[in-house]
Specification:
Blueprint lengths: L7 H7 L2 H13 L16 H78 L5 E2 L6 E2 L2 H11 L7
Antiparallel strand pairs: 1-2
Helix pairs in contact: 2-3
Subcellular location: Cytoplasm, Cytoskeleton, Cilium basal body; Cytoplasm, Cytoskeleton, Microtubule organizing center, Centrosome, Centriole; Nucleus
GO biological process, one term: heart development
Protein name: Cilium assembly protein DZIP1
């Protein structure tokens, strides 16, 4: 009765997916073998029954495929969500490491400059002035005098 109430041409013309979805289970799992013609009370044509049964099996297969693909899609969406979260964490780590690398490069440049200065001082050993109170060395006498007055004022009178 439900199926006979549906206007198939209207459903097809309007692409009424909602009506199809509401009736898909009724169509897929109905049994027509015992149905009889309301006018002549004869049974349904066996070839027509076979055609309907094949259509029902096809619908069952498509429903199964739809459920399988939907579950696969959910799994892939979850994996994608996790991958995006992991990617964001990796981006944050990469940014942090880039900052650390920049600081290390600056430190390396500073140390290279210090080493080259020390090498120049070692090469020019004769012209360097050593503090008598600590291990520091200076390029000229004025720097040494200013160092002694700042760092060793109590000993500067000596």
């Amino acid at each position: 009765r439900r199926l006979s109430a549906i206007d198939v041409d209207k459903v097809a013309g309007a692409v009424d997916v909602l009506t199809l979805q509401e009736n898909i289970m009724n169509i897929t799992f109905c049994k027509l073998e015992d149905e009889k013609c309301p006018h002549c009370q004869s049974g349904v044509d066996p070839v027509l029954l076979k055609l309907i049964r094949l259509a029902q099996l096809t619908i069952e297969y498509l429903l199964h495929s739809q459920e399988f693909l939907t579950s696969q899609l959910r799994g892939l969406e979850e994996r994608l969500r996790l991958s995006v979260a992991e990617s964001e964490q990796s981006q944050k780590l990469l940014a942090k490491q880039a900052g650390e690398m920049k600081l290390l490069k600056e430190e390396c440049k500073r140390r290279k400059k210090m080493i080259s200065t020390q090498q120049l001082m070692i090469e020019a050993k004769a012209s360097c002035y050593q503090c008598h109170f600590c291990d520091k060395a200076f390029m000229n006498q004025a720097f040494l005098q200013s160092h002694i007055q700042r760092r060793h004022p109590e000993d500067s009178h000596l």
